[in-house]
Design goal:
heterodimer, A: alpha/beta, Rossmann fold, nine-stranded mixed β-sheet, B: alpha+beta, Elongation Factor Tu (Ef-tu), domain 3, Alpha-Beta Plaits, 5 domains, eight-stranded antiparallel β-sheet, seven-stranded mixed β-sheet, 16 helices, 29% helix
């Protein structure tokens, strides 16, 4: 009951398709924002939404240690539970914990073959098989194209959904479609691109590219105090 | 001779297991002329390091009890508490930190910031202990002190600044560049006792200058004079050290030193830093609670004329009888003084006073504020405060975690019986996390503590120090019971079998409560239960908690609300209402979906990456939830939560799965519900156990 409540009340669902997932199976998506605007918070909410649907989520971080990533999840989850006034949240938390796995790498030490090798360690022993992956801190520089293509293939092969955070820079003007220059030669790889745009005291969640090009997506906000997503009404 | 207080340092050496802190202490004692030969931990000479005074510590190559010792360096008196690194003994670390003014955080230049360093760092934060860091083992292959400095920043959030840079690394480590004086320092002589300073080698000059700039940048935040001097390019070592000292005392900055204790490099500059950068007792504010004024906090001053306040932080049964290590916070304690134990109110006369150096000692006449020493033949427990007759001050109590594991022990013969009880009496006084009691039903003596190794060490100590040979049962996990839903009760206790009757009715409900608490709420209105019997009801409910109806584990996390009842003018009594409450508890409990909770441990394994899969498999087989893995190039750190009941013998399993190259730490995390299948097994075992007793 509790899980259902949290899933149904999650405004991210409004960006989703019929099955309410924002990304199609095998697809990859990006969350764009400048430093400190809330990329990780949004990614963690995407992860929690999937965890509550009893799907396994692998959180790959190239920046933070396991403890810190774990703390992110806990904080956002508690904020969510508080907002919806849910009782017995500890039990709910305990029930989703086994479905989450955090892997952290040094940025220099990260490669797709290495990630695949680590995942094989887990899947072959039946310890953990991800259904969604979020990758935080992946460097979108000149060398990004090849690993991104590999990950796209990997996602296709295993029917995963993979989200990336992309850090944009104030001094780099985006293209006419809003896509920042560092993604310009690889944006065709992404099925969905969301952007966090601070305006005054609010942070807007804009859909730069959705799965359904025709659809008029509702406007969502990220509350900087709780880091939670809400509808803009 | 006692020094001026500004020339006293009470420091601890805290670190992850195997980062070499005992070796470092050994070298410090050697350079300060306290010892004249160097013995190594697990030394080939079979003597072992001086600080590991217990035979057992020498054998296992770990430090268990923190020995206090003192030494002198450049006119300063340095009291060192050697703290254990294994997480099973963290109460020792916590107790040591309580009495320290500053600490050296020892890190391995290969392993870097490991899980235990994080625990120790949290403890330092809790007691606001300023620290400097020493990156040890720079002679080892794979050494990279600057990576460790980065980890100090990233993982522990320290504003870590390099005070030195190495000259050569790994097998080529020759010495260090002092970034304050801008000189190269080499360590000559058989045991590195001769320090030779020279010009910085040309190849390192540029890097040294850029590092010095960073150092000055960081330090100038704490001194305007330094900032001005930096702008004018006239920074003196004195100005820089003074600013760094301010930052260090505020815990804003962590100066980082480096070297290799084992290869005798970099220890003397570290000692200089202890005297230059860490606080003296007068720099630290200590608080006590005034028992006469509703525990109002009182700031202590190191004034020798004031009433003495001293904390007993460690007890030891040594070759000289019972030793009580104390730290004096205010006033002084002298031979023949009469002091009062603030907890028991007992007066005791101070016989002998000593200053300890591992297991040797030196008699002294008095201990003044800021100093650490030992009392002889005084009966007290760890954590007790001593004052005089005029004041009733108590040092704030120390945080003591609840034990999570227990074990039944039985003496093998009569002689062991006596010795065992002597040993238990001593150990429970020394270590508040080690507890003992007799199981009323089975008559077994049960010991409980913080982990398997914790209990094993005490059993070994019983055998070696007290000659008490004991048999041990299987370790038992401290399970608990709790309820998961609200349930009502309405129970009438009625007895009319001749003589005075008994009557009492208790109604209300029970529901889950957060945490470990038992809460009793009285919502009875209109006197349906007369006020004088409410306490009896509470007592009746409380009496049911020690042994839960489900599996006889303690019941926790429950709120009981009574809102109705009935009494009889003649037949109601306290006894009747206690019995009614017991009946009501059983009635409600049966409907409240009771479950068993078990202690879940946070288990962190550090292993070479090639064994990552094997380690994860081993944790998974133990019902562990793997939270994540941290890839650190050649090593990886796996964090998991594993039920304590599955962790017995894990060290052997881990050793064989990783060719002995992995290590793990374990600490209590939380209580969590036992899966249904395991709960059924437990139930079966409990029933069998009952049959056997019968």
């Amino acid at each position: 009951m509790l899980k259902k409540d949290l899933i149904l009340r999650n405004p991210l669902r409004l960006l989703g398709q019929e099955d309410q997932y924002i990304l199609p199976e095998g697809g990859i998506g990006a969350v764009l924002a400048r430093a400190g605007v809330g990329k990780t918070a949004l990614m963690v909410q995407l992860a929690l939404d999937t965890l509550l649907r009893e799907k396994n989520v692998l959180h790959v971080s190239l920046d933070d240690p396991v403890d810190k990533v774990s703390l992110w999840h806990k904080e956002v989850f508690h904020n969510m539970a508080e907002q919806y006034n849910l009782p017995q949240i500890n039990q709910l938390w305990d029930s989703i914990l086994p479905k989450r796995f955090i892997m952290t790498f040094k940025v220099d030490g990260f490669s797709v073959p290495k990630l695949e090798e680590r995942l094989r360690d887990l899947t072959e022993q039946n310890i953990f098989t991800p259904q969604m992956i979020i990758v935080d801190g992946f460097p979108f520089d000149d060398t990004a194209l090849e690993p991104l293509q590999q990950l796209r293939e990997f996602s296709n092969r295993h029917g995963l959904r993979i989200w990336f955070s992309v850090r944009t820079h104030r001094h780099e003007a985006p293209g006419p479609d809003g896509i920042p220059p560092q993604l310009s030669n690889m944006d065709n790889l992404f099925n969905v691109i969301l952007q966090l745009q601070p305006e005054g005291k609010k942070v807007h969640v804009k859909v730069l590219r959705g799965v359904d090009a025709e659809k008029d997506y509702p406007e969502l906000m990220l509350d900087p105090a709780t880091m939670l997503i809400s509808r803009n009404d | 001779m006692e020094k001026d207080l500004s020339q006293v340092r009470n420091i601890g050496i805290s670190a992850h297991i195997d980062s070499g802190k005992t070796t470092l202490t050994e070298r410090i004692l050697y350079y300060t002329d306290r010892i004249h030969t160097i013995h190594d931990v697990k030394g080939k000479d079979g003597v072992g390091a001086t600080m590991d005074s217990m035979e057992l510590e020498r054998e296992r190559g770990i430090t268990i009890a923190s020995a206090a010792t003192y030494c002198e360096w450049r006119d300063h008196q340095v009291n060192i508490i050697d703290t254990p690194g294994h997480v099973d003994f963290t109460i020792e670390v916590e107790r040591s930190l309580r009495v320290l003014d500053g600490a050296i955080l020892v890190l391995c230049s290969v392993g870097g910031v490991q899980s235990q360093s994080i625990t120790v760092d949290m403890q330092m934060k809790r007691y606001k202990v300023p620290c400097i860091a020493f990156i040890n083992k720079c002679d080892r292959s794979g050494a990279n002190p600057f990576r460790v400095i980065q980890q100090l920043k990233d993982k522990l959030g320290h504003n870590a600044v390099a005070m030195q840079m190495p000259i050569g690394l790994e097998a080529d480590l020759e010495g260090v560049v002092d970034l304050v004086t801008m000189q190269a320092v080499y360590f000559d002589g058989e045991n590195g006792e001769v320090m030779r300073t020279e010009e910085i080698p040309d190849a390192l000059r540029d890097e040294a200058e850029s590092l010095r700039e960073k150092l000055i940048d960081a330090a100038s935040m704490y001194s305007d004079d330094l900032m001005e001097a930096a702008l004018e390019g006239e920074v003196t070592p004195e100005l820089l050290t003074e600013a760094l000292r301010i930052g260090t005392l505020e815990r804003d900055i962590t100066p980082v030193f480096m070297g290799s204790a084992y290869k005798n490099k970099g220890v003397q500059p570290l000692l200089d830093a202890v005297t230059n950068l860490l606080p003296c007792p007068a720099d630290v504010e200590n608080q006590a609670l005034d028992m006469n004024a509703d525990e109002a906090p009182v700031i202590l001053s190191s004034d020798a004329g004031k009433s003495p306040v001293a904390l007993a932080f460690k007890l030891e049964d040594g070759q000289y009888g019972q030793l009580t290590y104390i730290r004096v916070y205010q006033g002084s304690i002298s031979k023949a003084d009469t002091i009062v134990n603030a907890r028991t109110g007992k007066k005791v006369k101070v016989g002998r006073l000593a200053r300890m150096h591992a297991d040797q000692m030196e008699d002294i006449d008095s201990i003044s504020a800021g100093y650490i020493g030992a009392l002889f033949g005084i009966d007290c427990a760890s954590g007790d405060t001593f004052t005089d007759r005029n004041s009733r001050l108590s040092m704030t109590s120390m945080y003591v975690p609840e034990p999570v594991i227990s074990l039944a022990i039985a003496p093998r013969d009569n002689k062991s019986q006596n010795n065992m009880s002597k040993a238990l009496n001593r150990f429970t006084k020394e270590d508040p996390t080690f507890q003992t009691y007799v199981n009323q039903e089975t008559g077994d003596t049960i010991i409980s503590g913080m982990g398997e190794l914790h209990l094993e060490v005490y059993i070994e100590r019983m055998r070696r120090e007290y000659g008490a040979d004991v048999e041990t049962g299987m370790p038992r996990v401290a399970y608990r019971e709790t309820i998961t839903q609200k349930a009502e009760f309405n129970y009438t206790h009625k007895k009319q079998t001749g003589g005075a009757g008994q009557f009492g009715r208790v109604a209300g409900y029970m529901e889950p409560a957060e945490g470990d608490e038992f809460e009793f709420v009285n919502k009875v209105t209109g006197g349906s239960i007369p006020t004088q019997f409410i306490a009896a009801c509470e007592k009746g409910f409380k009496g049911c908690l020690a042994k839960g109806p489900k599996m006889e584990f303690p019941v926790t996390g429950i709120r009981i609300v009574i809102d109705d009842g009935a009494s009889h003018a003649v037949d109601s009594s306290e006894m009747a209402f206690q019995a009614a409450a017991r009946g009501a508890f059983l009635e409600g409990y049966a409907r409240a979906k009771a479950v068993i909770h078990e202690p879940i441990m946070k288990v962190v394994v550090e292993s070479p990456t090639e064994f990552q899969g094997a380690v994860m498999g081993s944790l998974n087989q133990r019902r562990g939830i793997i939270l994540g893995s941290q890839d650190e190039v050649t090593m990886c750190v796996i964090e998991s939560q594993v039920p304590l009941s599955e962790m017995f013998g894990y060290s052997t399993v881990l050793r064989s799965a990783t060719q002995g190259k992995a290590q793990f730490t374990m600490e209590f995390n939380a209580y969590r519900q036992v899966p249904q299948s395991i709960a059924e097994d437990l139930l079966k075992k409990a029933q069998e156990g009952k049959k056997n007793v019968a």
